[in-house]
Amino acid sequence: MILGPGAVAPDFALPDLHGAPQRLADRRGVRPVVLAFVPFAFSRICTRELAELDGARPVFDAAGAELLVASVDSKHALRAWAEEQGVGLALLSDFWPHGATARAYGAFDERAGYARRASFAIGADGVIRSSFEAAPGEARPLDAYRGALDSLG
Where are the domains of the chain? Predict the structure, then answer.
């Protein structure tokens, strides 16, 4: 079960697609974060979600929230995926220890070995305001993100 509203968001330090460490703690007191886990780079549904989220960046910006997308892929795979898709989103690698951040959020599928499609709207105070996940094989609707952004206001 994924963490729900009212839970303190577990801190993380994950490398982005260029290897730069990205820490949730660095964003506390600054601005809210929306953390979206995806199972795998280059997979059909994840690629469709990535394009939709990249196109919706103005929605996140208007809400004052930073969007972070994480998967268990290596930073090298994430960089290749971002370049191939032409997206400018912050992609984070939860590669090693494998899926540790997804586990902390309750979003790791232990049998399959990857993060489920789970998203978390985290207030600037580090508290989760909204969380949701999609059923296996289904994409998350953009409207779910809009509702999550509303919970940050």
Answer: 1-8+28-127
Q: What's the chain's Rg over C-alpha atoms?
A: 14
pLDDT tens sequence across 12-46: 999 999 999 999 999 999 999 999 999 999 999 99
Nearest-angstrom CA–CA distance, 39 and 72: 7
Active site residues: 46
CATH architecture of 1-8+28-127: 3-Layer(aba) Sandwich (3.40)
Coil/strand/helix, residue 54:
helix
Say how many Å lie between the first and final Cα of the chain, rounded. Answer: 25
Cross-strand bridge partners of residue 115: 108
Angle of helix 142-152 versus helix 44-55 axis, rounded to 10: 50
Q: Would you call 146 helix, strand, or coil by DSSP?
A: helix
**pLDDT tens across 106-127, in order?**
999 999 999 999 999 999 999 9
User: How far are the Cα atoms of 6, 17, 98, 127 from residue 104, in angstroms, in the given order?
Assistant: 15, 21, 12, 14
**Residue appearing with tokens 């370049």:** 83
Please give the C-alpha separations between residue 140 and each of 8, 52, 75, 98, 148, in angstroms, as whole numbers. 23, 10, 23, 23, 12
